[in-house]
Design brief:
By secondary structure, this protein is α+β, with helices and mostly antiparallel strands. The chain is built from seven helices and ten strands. It is flat and about 80 Å long. Residues 58-85 form a coiled coil.
């Protein structure tokens, strides 16, 4: 577990280039220097990731504060009416909450739950199986400490075999309780040139409405109502759901043929019957 390194890097911020032998050898354990180096790198990545997310969230709130202040200044330059004063008061309330949230923001130290481990070529090596038929390969973990070695049996699935033909497998692994994750480097070529871009708004009355005024799936609501009329768990409901799924896939293919790049509205964190302010 990189818990010992997490506590150290949380208090003492360092760069990856400063991760030298004197740093990752601070804990006095039976583990080898290589193993401690791998654990220290994983811990440092976790700390840096938390810090990056925290800085991004802080920047977003700061942008919101600036936008509210600009909006207040814009309204103040208008006529002094009761409606404008009410808008300014509401904006000041929002501004106060945003500033309070900004001042109280604190990054939370990450926790390693010991359910996964990142392994590099320093201690891990993928070896072919000597007795084919039982397993496809072994992931040998060495340089752990006290001459300890661990061999993890691996069976490759179809997805691995396809990626292994397309690209180059990297010597880094993520070991979990049930599986081992591999990384591949695949040459994808130059990015596709975007000539036609459209925005999509999804809904029930029209499954997809574009910014160009086109609407797709105007009969989607009928399919949904048909599912609601069916008895829960019945064969009729299963057939109706499959029909709706097929209809959505058909419309999605048609929409994708309309443009090179599609922008879709983000609808996360919305609850049922939500009323949007100012709509």
């Amino acid at each position: 577990r990189p818990e010992f390194a997490l506590n150290h890097f949380w208090k003492h911020k360092i760069k990856k280039t400063e991760l030298l032998k004197d740093v990752f050898n601070i804990p006095d354990t039976w583990l080898s220097s290589r193993f401690k180096q791998v654990a220290a790198r994983e811990a440092l990545d976790m700390v840096n990731s938390v810090q990056e997310v925290f800085d991004w969230n802080k920047e977003q709130i700061l942008d919101s504060i600036t936008a509210i202040e600009n909006k207040i200044q814009e309204i103040q330059e208008r006529l002094d009416t009761k409606q404008n004063r009410r808008k300014i008061n509401n904006l000041y309330v929002k501004l106060k909450k945003k500033k309070m949230k900004y001042d109280m923001m604190q990054p939370h130290k990450p926790k390693h739950k010991s359910k996964r481990m990142c392994i590099s070529a320093l201690i891990g090596e993928l070896q072919d199986c000597k007795n084919p038929g039982k397993f496809d390969a072994w992931l040998r973990l060495s340089s752990i400490g006290n001459k300890t070695k661990i061999d993890l049996p691996i069976n490759f699935h179809r997805h691995f075999k396809e990626l292994n033909k397309k690209g180059r497998r990297l010597n880094s692994y993520i070991v979990t309780e049930d599986n081992i994750q591999f990384s591949f480097e695949i040459e994808t070529g130059p990015k596709k040139e975007v000539k036609h871009l459209i925005g999509i708004d999804t809904g029930i009355n029209a499954l997809a409405s574009t910014n160009e005024g086109k609407q797709f799936g105007l009969d989607t609501k009928e399919y949904i109502e048909k599912i609601k009329r069916c008895k829960w768990g019945s064969k009729g409901q299963v057939r109706a759901r499959k029909t709706l799924k097929y209809k959505i896939s058909e419309i999605a293919k048609r929409v994708c043929q309309e443009a090179d790049l599609i922008v879709v509205e983000k609808l996360k964190n919305l609850s049922k019957n939500t009323k949007l302010k100012g709509r």
